[in-house]
Write a structure and sequence with these properties.
The chain is of the alpha+beta class and 146 residues long. The chain is built from four helices and five strands; from the N terminus they run βαβββαβαα. The chain has a domain of 95 residues: Ribosomal protein S6/Translation elongation factor EF1B (Alpha-Beta Plaits), CATH 3.30.70. Strands 1, 2, 3, 4 and 5 form a five-stranded antiparallel beta sheet that branches. The longest helix has 12 residues. It is elongated, with a radius of gyration of 27 Å.
Length: 146
């Protein structure tokens, strides 16, 4: 049976910026291919985690055999330098975003959905005529309030 590799992303908090190398070594030992890696950012935690109030947040996108993800997660749980982590499957998120962007399909029974789409109006360029002085604004407000 053929092993299936999938794309994943891990976001994690570490005590030191250098602890990222240890997570990268763990990924390599589980035969993961690194796709993208974010820069470590120092953040203040909302609440203390393992008595730490400041941590480094890092994300790494990688491709790995789906059977190895659980073993990788188990090894990362035992690492005392990793405060928190979350591994997510990237295709599931991408599919969800595509669904949100899709427009509802037109139904042939409902004539209201068959209306032609209006072209997007071009933004107006500001000219000196578009600006109104205070006197004209006050007159217009008085007319509206009457």
């Amino acid at each position: 049976m053929e092993k299936q590799t999938k794309n994943y992303e891990i976001g994690f908090l570490t005590v030191n910026e250098d602890d990222v190398k240890e997570v990268l070594r763990d990924l390599e030992s589980h035969k993961a291919a690194i796709l993208k890696q974010g820069r470590p950012r120092k953040i203040r935690l909302a609440y203390p985690i393992k008595k730490e109030i400041v941590a480094y947040f890092i994300f790494i996108q990688f491709s790995m055999d789906s059977d190895m993800v659980e073993a990788f997660s188990s090894k990362l749980k035992l690492n005392s330098k990793t405060l928190r982590f979350m591994v997510i499957n990237l295709p599931a998120i991408a599919m969800r975003q595509e669904r949100e962007v899709e427009k509802p399909q037109e139904s042939p029974e409902n004539p209201a959905t068959k209306q032609k789409a209006k072209p997007a109006a071009e933004p107006k360029k500001a000219s000196s005529d578009d600006f109104v002085n205070n006197e004209l604004l006050e007159k217009k407000l008085e007319e509206i309030l009457k």
